[in-house]
Structures are given as C-alpha cells and as structure tokens.
Amino acid sequence: MAEAIEGHGGELALAAARAFGVNEMFTLSGGHVFPLYDAAHKIGFPIYDVRHEQTAVFAAEAVAKLQRRPGLAVLTAGPGVTNGISGLTSAFFNASPVLVLGGRAPQFRWGSGSLQEFDHVPLVAPITKYAGTVTDTDAIPGEVRAALTAALTAHRGPAFLDLPLEIVFSTGEAAAPGEPAVPVLEADPDEVSRAATLLASAERPVIIAGSDVWGGDAIAELRAAAEALQVPVFTNGMGRGALPPSHPLAFAKARRPALNEADVVCVIGTPLDFRLGFGEFGAAQVVHIVDAPSQRASHVETAVSPAGDLRRILTALAEHSGDRADHAEWIQGLRTAEDAGKARDAEAMAAETDLIKPARIYGELRKVLAPDAVTIGDGGDFVSYAGRYLEPAQPGTWLDPGPYGCLGTGMGYAMGARVTYPDRQICVLMGDGAAGFSLMDAESLVRQGLPVVMVVGNNGIWGLEKHPMQAMYGYDVAADLQPGLRYDDVVKALGGAGETVEKAAEIGPALERAFAAGVPYLVNVLTDPGDAYPRSSNLA
C-alpha cells in the first residue's frame, strides 16, 4: 500500500509543495489561511511576512528566479489575492514558477455574502499557467502537484490555487507526494541544424541571450555554443552575466553597430519585444530559439525558430560539424566599438558635477559591489542607467521587473534575495518614484533581520514622464515629486538606517557605510532632475 499523508488542508498543501523544493513561505497574515501557518509552525518551516501582499509575491518570484525552483506566496481571500495580482502578472511575463495559495470564502455558503467573498480564478487565469479552486481536502496534494508541474513546464510561469475556508481547515488523507516529473520538450532537429548552419556560415552573426537561458539552466551550454561557433554575445534580463565581462565574446556597449551590421541575429530565451526593437534587425536573418512553441514570435518573419529544451538546443549548436565562416574580423571590429563605449562610460561614471549625475552613482557602486552581489533594479529612468553601467560578473545576480515593467518589486526581490543568499551583498536600486510603492516593507526587512542596501536616485520627478511630456507638449503634469525628500529618514523611522548624499565625492563613503551596517540601510542620493536617460519611445 502506498504511503499516505494525513492532516488538515494546510498540512497537505505544505507537504506537496515541499516535495517540489519549496523551502519558505511569504505572506501577509489572514484568517482564511491560518492552517498553512499552523502547518509551517509545527515543523519549523520559515515564514516571512510583509506589509503588502504584492511584496510577498515579488519575494516568492525572486526565490523562483534566483534558485530556479518554485517560490511560495500565501495570500488571504479577496483583497489579499487582488493585491498580489501585479506580482503574479510580473511572474507570468518573467516565466517565474511562483505558486500562490489563496484563501477563499467558504464554499458551502457561497453567495451569502461571507467576508471577502470573491471568485479569484477568472481574474488570475489569464496570467497563470494553472488556476483552480480545490473543492475537496483529500485533493489538495494532487492539485498542488499539478499546479507546480505546470509552473515548472516550459514555458514556465506562475500557478494559483484557491483553498476555500472549510476545505483548508478540514482534515483529509492522500497519497504522499512523489518526486516531481516535469516534461522536457525536444526541439525539431532539422530546425536546430538550420539554426546552427545559419550562425556558423554567417559573416556577421550576433547572439542575444535572455532570461530563459538562466531559467532553463543553460548558461554553460550557451558559453559552449558561443565559443564553438565564435559568435559575439549580448544579453538582457537574467541572461546578464552569462559570459563574464572579461570573456572575449561578451559584449554590452557595441549593441547598436552589432545589430545594424549583423547578417544573422540569433535571439535565445527572450521575446522579440520592445526591448529588442520588436525583432526588426534590418536586413539580418532572425533566428529565434525558444523553450516552447508558444514563445515563437508571430509579428516578425524568422528564418527558423527551434522550440524546446534550451540546454539540448545549445549543446547541438556547439556540436555543429558543418562549415564555419571566420568571424575574427567581425569580432575585432565590435571589440573596437566596445572599448570606445567603455571609455565613454568611464568618463561619465567619474563625473564630478554637483548636481550629481546618475552615472556617477554607478561608477561608485562598481567599486564596492562584490562579484557575487545580487543587484536589484526597481525603477524607470534611474534603473535604465543601471542597465547601462553595471555589468554583472556572474549569472543569476541581476533582478529587474522584466518586460511587464511593474514598479514596486524592490523590497520583495530584496527579501527573496536575502533569504536565498544570507551572506552576499544585496543592493536595491530605486528611483524615488519606485520607492513610493514598497518602501514600507523596509520594516519587514528590519523586523526579520534581513539586511540590504537601498540606493535611491532622488531627482524629485517621474523622469520617464516629465521630460517626454515637456518635449511633446511644452509642459508637464502629474510628473513632480517632493524635491529632496528624506527617504533615508523613512527607513530610519522603520528601524533601519540611512543617510542623504548631496555631493559626488560623498557617494563612495556612504556606500561603504551602508554595506558594513548589517541592517537595512538607505543611501538617498540627490540627483540632477535635468539629467534624463537618452531613449526613443518604446510604447508603440
């Protein structure tokens, strides 16, 4: 007879989640989900609580991103779930295997007006891989297993389960959860061969690698393919750091000449969205390698688009035995452009101007960040500079909101990163606009002993809106914040520490104090409101 587990619904749910590697719970207290807390308390399972449900989901997503395994958020019924929807949507766009267990008003009196009675599933179904309401206590482990299997199956993404009050509080019995069985998709070998041939025979090929290369645990295979075919590599999202900055095929500053002159552009593990000019690369042939057929671009014509397990596809590229063009001259030309770009950046990062230029902040950060530091971007204009001036030394050390562009990820991502890496530097980069979304959760970090460093680029405006509105209309509205606001005093009042910096020469010493403090510490840097990150519109 197969081994069985029994207990109340919270115990059954937690046992099933633990079988998939879930090691912690992020939540905001609510009576509908008390059995899940009881189950965790009985076995010493870590619970991290927050001040807004979006932070719980973002924290679970950070764990899912960094550890490439499910993260768990537990949200109470009604507003608890709806407050977490932006986090769920970000996880959906980022292919993050997050499981949200939601409380639900009792099913037996549905329609009678119970507290926080609301049918969540139709709301979350479009932004999850799996969404359902569990109607029998004995079915909870099987439903959790099905939800997590869907979340981990490429293309990965979040899952949601509703647990009605009487279901989660009742006792039940079910078969013990077994080992996860996640299917692996095999790509069409002819498509893989065609992609390899195009890259190998191209005169000016380029690879762009994105987050799914990290999420699919294919970093080593990407390096092997790039080295075997001798193709320069650019990255975005969690693909950053896939090749260390010193690698002869790693490029960041020469992107424009590379994409303007390439004859084959191979995009791996990231969509052909606004971040990549919607996949319009001039006369270049486009190879789009994705982890599932659903991720193939439908708005542009591609030469070939293999879909399947990225490790296997990239291994096949590395093992390609056909003819290969010599890319040495192409690579050398890009290296010249790269070196020129780095020289321009170095000058900007050393700027002595007061008012402080955002680039100078990143110049000082580069001096104090350890190679394995986890850097988190939560903002628009200020974080755009981070993407330009910070070059992760290792893969899996960069977190940003991703293509959904949701502000407010910072404190949740910081919590998940600190839980993942107790001994690493964790640095959150926030615009002063983004700080307004989640800074109250600095209290959650303080109370639970989770030190992080927060750097706020404080220009007193919504930078991505004020400057474009001025250019378009000659005026701006709803684009100003309070100049010089003391965000460091907010964190101090919540039990942490911090300081305000007004001179460029003071940035470095302030950062050193922040990383040595051992508590949540905010460095509030007053920056030039007239300095805007150069960009063309990505709205269309």
From TrEMBL:
This protein's record includes keyword Membrane: no
Similarity section: Belongs to the TPP enzyme family.
Source organism: Paractinoplanes pyxinae
Domain Thiamine pyrophosphate enzyme N-terminal TPP-binding intervals: 9-121
Family annotation (Gene3D superfamilies): 3.40.50.970, TPP-binding domain (3.40.50.1220)
Stated name of the protein: Acetolactate synthase
Enzyme class: transferase
Molecular function per GO: acetolactate synthase activity
Cross-referenced Pfam families: TPP_enzyme_C (PF02775), TPP_enzyme_M (PF00205), TPP_enzyme_N (PF02776)
Record carries keyword Cell cycle: no
Cofactor(s) annotated in UniProt: thiamine diphosphate
Domain Thiamine pyrophosphate enzyme central: 192-317
Record keywords: Thiamine pyrophosphate, Transferase
Thiamine pyrophosphate enzyme TPP-binding domain location: 378-525
EC number(s) recorded for this UniProt protein: 2.2.1.6
